[in-house]
């Protein structure tokens, strides 16, 4: 325990995170902040920082100050700067490592492969780690419902990719049936090995804040394993005496796929699975989440909240954040939209330390950004669209455009 308290980072990195040696926090508490990082001759107030070096937690200074009524302590934990571009890598390294171990053990029925149903990120992580280990991966994907960037990941990694004419929930039902029949190890997050790995992000947040507990942590929610993993990570640190309380968790859902939100609004009286509608936050287009009961445990234990965001709200929140340099994914847009609402109604205060969990890299969802900036989305004003200007390759024409754009600033 004493050793853990002195070296918590290396302990957890060694145990749970194959990114050993990469996840380092070189600036004291590990948070890249103006207070701790001073370039000789530069006023700390002039330093502009995002996700440099190895830090994946950054102070969203401009977003908080300019767009969230002077919020001073707003942070983004970017879990998408990882090998396959989403937080799923954290859990998949643990699960595939265990399968790798089991496949070397003398089992009566050897494990033939690892399978999952996916909306795109889990399949990317599973296929990459299985490819690294030489284990067959089988992924069930809802046809035409995941991004091209996500689709190419398991294909390129050599997985068996089944593109099924159903939604994620249909894929999930099928993979459960298949894995009950065949010796294929199920890798969805109902498997607690995944959650053990995903806990890492919560532990990292606490360590990066030098074991000071943030007031709020906002997590997008679809299949709902991740909100529980965050709770488990925070709760473990509390039980170990590393911190003395838990942050309040917010689970943010797309209004088009909001079974947990509805359950929460019913006072947790009745859970009703639904057929999830299409959403730009396609990775959380899930109507019958496998970890719903665990999510309720997490939210009840942390005095948590469930919030929802419409398509317009999530795309605007993502695009506004992008204008502060973030390049968020639409799911992070859902979490940001929840933050805007909670801040506006005063639930989250100006001085509350708040962490928004960014679950995937924005580059995995470029088509949705293209549609938004092209203003091609039906019934959406696309308030922050920034379409490119087509202009003749001619000095006068270029000058005209720039003078118009920079009017009053030249
Ligand atoms: N968003 C997920 C859906 C599957 O969830 P999991 O928690 O069971 O992995 C994905 O990217 O596939």
TrEMBL record:
GO BP: any one term: threonine biosynthetic process
Keyword Coiled coil: no
GO terms, molecular function: pyridoxal phosphate binding; threonine synthase activity
Cofactor(s) named in the record: pyridoxal 5'-phosphate
Catalytic activity entry: O-phospho-L-homoserine + H2O = L-threonine + phosphate
Family classification: Belongs to the threonine synthase family.
Record-given protein name: Threonine synthase
Taxonomy of the source species: Eukaryota, Viridiplantae, Streptophyta, Embryophyta, Tracheophyta
């Amino acid at each position: 325990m004493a050793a853990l308290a002195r070296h918590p980072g290396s302990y957890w990195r060694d145990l749970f995170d194959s990114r050993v040696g990469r996840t380092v926090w070189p600036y004291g508490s590990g948070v890249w902040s103006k207070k701790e990082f001073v370039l000789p001759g530069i006023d700390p107030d002039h330093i502009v920082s995002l996700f440099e070096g190895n830090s994946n937690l950054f102070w969203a200074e401009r977003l908080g100050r300019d767009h969230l009524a002077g919020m001073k302590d707003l942070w983004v934990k970017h879990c998408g700067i990882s090998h396959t571009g989403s937080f799923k890598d954290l859990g998949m390294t643990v699960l595939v490592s265990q399968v790798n171990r089991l496949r070397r053990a003398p089992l009566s029925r050897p494990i033939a492969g690892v399978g999952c149903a996916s909306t795109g990120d889990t399949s990317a992580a599973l296929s990459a780690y299985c490819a690294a280990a030489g284990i067959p991966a089988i992924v069930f994907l809802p046809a035409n419902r995941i991004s091209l960037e996500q689709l190419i990941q398991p294909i390129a990694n050599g997985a068996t990719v089944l593109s099924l004419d159903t939604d994620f929930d249909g894929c999930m039902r099928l993979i459960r049936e298949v894995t009950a029949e065949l010796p294929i190890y199920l890798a969805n997050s109902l498997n607690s090995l995944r959650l053990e790995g995903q806990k890492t992000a919560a532990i990292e947040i606490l360590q990066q804040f030098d074991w000071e507990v943030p007031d709020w942590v906002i997590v997008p929610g679809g299949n709902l394993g991740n909100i529980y993993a965050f709770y488990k990570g925070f709760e473990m640190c509390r039980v170990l005496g590393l911190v003395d309380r838990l942050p309040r968790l917010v689970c943010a859902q797309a209004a088009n796929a909001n079974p947990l939100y509805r359950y929460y609004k019913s006072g947790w009286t009745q859970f009703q699975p639904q057929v999830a509608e299409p959403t730009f936050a396609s990775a959380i287009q899930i109507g019958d989440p496998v970890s719903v009961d665990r999510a309720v445990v997490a939210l009840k234990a942390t005095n948590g909240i469930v919030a929802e965001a419409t398509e317009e709200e999530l795309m605007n929140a993502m695009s506004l954040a992008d204008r502060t340099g973030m390049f968020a994914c639409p799911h992070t847009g859902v979490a940001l939209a929840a933050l805007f609402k909670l801040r506006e109604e005063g639930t989250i205060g100006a001085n509350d330390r708040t962490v928004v969990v960014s679950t995937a890299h924005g580059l995995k969802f470029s088509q949705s950004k293209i549609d938004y900036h092209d203003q091609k989305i039906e019934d959406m004003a696309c308030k922050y669209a920034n379409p490119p200007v087509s202009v003749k390759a001619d000095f006068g024409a270029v000058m005209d455009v720039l003078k118009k754009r920079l009017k009053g600033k030249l």
